[in-house]
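Narrative of activities, Objective 1.

The group set out to show that a structural description can be obtained from nothing but a protein's sequence at a throughput compatible with the screening campaign. Below is one input-output pair from the validation batch, recorded exactly as produced.
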Amino acid sequence: QLQLVESGGGLVQPGGSLRLSCVVSGDTLDYYAIGWFRQAPGKEREGVGCINNNGGKTNYEDSVKGRFTISRDNAKNTVYLQMNSLKSEDTAVYYCGAPMTSLQAMCLMNRPDYGMDYYGKGTLVTVSS
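Output recorded for this entry:
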């Protein structure tokens, strides 16, 4: 079973930037698509975007398209979420997720969970002046 640990959250002013990291252990990251999600206070968890196993394809939700970028360094077993031009509505706990099987190299964008089964505990991002 994979373990995921997110980090990099914090307090940032509107218009600022943050980079979140997701360190994955328990298997080689090379085979797995990884998704990013967030949950704002009082709301359900929602998808942010997803990256396939080799980083060759990324998909983003409309709310973050053009502002957020997902990348990965499989040698470091780490996936990143670069967040620019942050808005107050981006305030949330951010999670990364991984599928149960190493056979899922692509993101299942037709599903709200992108096909992810395991999640980390999350890191809090607060956008406020």
